[in-house]
Amino acid sequence: MLYELDKEKYANIHSTMLEEKHLIDLVREFLQNKRYFIVIDDIWDMKPWGILRCSLHENGLKSIIITTTRILDVAEQIGGCYRMKPLTHESSKKLFYGRIFGSEDKCPGQYFEVSEKILKKCGGVPLAIITTSSLLANKSENIKVWNDVCGSIGSGLASNPSMDSMRKILLLSYYDLPSHLKACLLYLSIFPEDYEIEKYRLILRWIAEDFVHRENESQSLFEHGESYFNELLNRSLIQIADRDTISFCRVHDMVLELICSLSREESFVTTVLGDSRQCMPSSGSTVRRLSLQNTTWPKTEMPKLRSVAIFSPAIINTMPSLSIYHLLRVLDLQDCNLRERRNLRFVGNLFHLRYLSLARAGYAGELPVEVGKLQFLQSLLLHGTEIEELPSSIVGLTQLMFLCVDRRTSLPNGLKYLTSLEMLGIVRVDSACIAEELGHLMQLRLLLVNLTTDKEGRWDENICTALVGSLGKLHKIQTLIVLSDDVAANLEGSVESVGNLSTLSIDRTTSLPTWIRPAILLLLSYVDITVVQVRREDIQVLGRLQALRYLYLGVGNKQVLERFMVRPDAFPCAITCIFSKLAMVPSTFPPGAMPRLEKFIFGIQLEDFLRGEFTTDDLALGHLPSLQDVQVYLSGRWKVSEEVVTKVKEKLRHEADGHPNHPSLRYDDDF
């Protein structure tokens, strides 16, 4: 027996060595004869650096490699060690006071002395300053709390920014959390390091674990969960991973280390990694929430297991039948490879299941009819699978709040009975009947539909009319996404109920719907819409959306608008504006418009400059004070001389170089 174990052990080692050699060869082949710039982040010891070093091709082309580590010994062994300097006192003050009061001059005088003491103890470490200031941001009227926090920090970071000193500051923030937020934060230890965590996925899992409690009957569980998410964000315990939509978050490495340590101490989450850093406990009876980041299923019995998340697709090959885990509430198989699995009938035995995700797992079998037995099921995520249709038993899941399927998946009749649904996507709408049923789902906050032909390839002209009619009944809708297959949807009609709409995306429509009215859509911050043809008044309407931060406006075919100018107060909050296949010059937006615009993507027709319809003065950028990134599509190069192209490029480069922010500038040859 021992011989067999040793043989298996050495076989695994040999296999690992072969995999490493193969990867090294692939990287070396790719880098051969290339000049490269590579950043390798957060190296813990020399062994991985030794493997990486072998794969980096020394080809004499003056390539650059930057490594980062928190361990000085590792940095010195790698060579070329540079120790990051702490923030200056002035920069520290700007970060600290800005987070709490907006600026230093808004800080009440009685707080200056204790603030200086806190800043000294933070030692110019950005994470320490951000964490401490976020902790104090909600306590700006209680000087005693400030003194207590100052006394609790200690002076370690000022003289030696060690892990222990930083941990002490982070623990202050953790112990300041209410109990329900402590559980929500510890739950993040389920996810691997540097993992981008989907906001919806996280909140729905919190709900399934009973961490979210309804304190206000006028708000849904998900809305309460969102407030928990925002509170952790405000306290800087999690970070935004995408600025435009706040759909993803991540956890700083040092925060993750802390919550992983606390989770182990409290047997809150059991994480099994691919190395020896974390092993299964000797008794499986303490395992309640399991995060698998290795390649084999644990052999320990786990009678109290209630949550499983798998982050290593290879583990599916060793996964037993999960029907033995009768207490399971959360089964998250997102991104696992289920293409070879054809039967998920065991799911019907998991009567306590509240969250089931097969998202992006490629499962091509049937969803068993037994799923209708899961009367506690709240979330069912099936996007990124190849399931052709859902069983009719699905309409009996009266507790279901979130249903997401692939755009090719057909839904059964009877959707209107799923009255608890708050989020629904992607609904394949191939008949007016299905579009009409959506109007009965009065709790919907997010709706994603795909307008398409029926199985015989016929398009029902009444689909759009029925959909617009249903939208008029969905008073709680916040996110609306409309896709369409090869059809420009006509979404014109009377819709008075969309005052809560914050995100709108329409894949293809005949024109900008007239129900997009600034006076009603006060919360609309994200718009992504492609129309057959844009009118000048459409730009004016979009410019009056007071909360708009992100705009993508595209047209089906290239279009040039006649010279016009928006109002000086247009697009007051816009940060990103993208105009696709639509010729648009910066002079369209006069001084005062777009004061916060950072990213600007637009196209120009070069022949307009040849004909004199526009001059290079129309390319001025200086009146856009926040500009950081500019991308310009130069259309019709073959119609003009190289002199015109050069003149336009030189003007744009002059504008970028002369701008106080020196925004980056890129060109593309066509829309």
Spell out the blueprint of helices and strands.
Elements: H1 2-31, E1 37-40, H2 46-55, E2 64-67, H3 72-78, H4 89-100, H5 112-122, H6 126-137, H7 143-153, H8 156-159, H9 163-175, H10 179-187, E3 197-198, H11 199-208, H12 221-234, E4 239-240, E5 248-250, H13 253-265, E6 270-272, E7 289-292, E8 307-310, E9 330-332, E10 355-357, E11 379-382, E12 402-405, E13 423-429, H14 432-437, E14 446-451, H15 463-471, E15 479-484, E16 503-509, E17 526-531, H16 536-543, E18 550-560, E19 576-583, E20 599-605, H17 606-611, E21 629-635, H18 642-658, E22 664-668
Parallel strand pairs: 1-2, 6-7, 7-8, 8-9, 9-10, 10-11, 11-12, 12-13, 13-14, 14-15, 15-16, 16-17, 17-18, 18-19, 19-20, 20-21, 21-22
Antiparallel strand pairs: 3-5, 4-5
Structural commentary:
- Helices cover 30% and strands 16% of the residues.
- It starts with a helix and ends with a strand.
- The chain has helices at 2-31, 46-55, 72-78, 89-100, 112-122, 126-137, 143-153, 156-159, 163-175, 179-187, 199-208, 221-234, 253-265, 432-437, 463-471, 536-543, 606-611, 642-658, and strands at 37-40, 64-67, 197-198, 239-240, 248-250, 270-272, 289-292, 307-310, 330-332, 355-357, 379-382, 402-405, 423-429, 446-451, 479-484, 503-509, 526-531, 550-560, 576-583, 599-605, 629-635, 664-668.
- The protein is globular.
- It comes from Panicum virgatum.
- This is NB-ARC domain-containing protein.
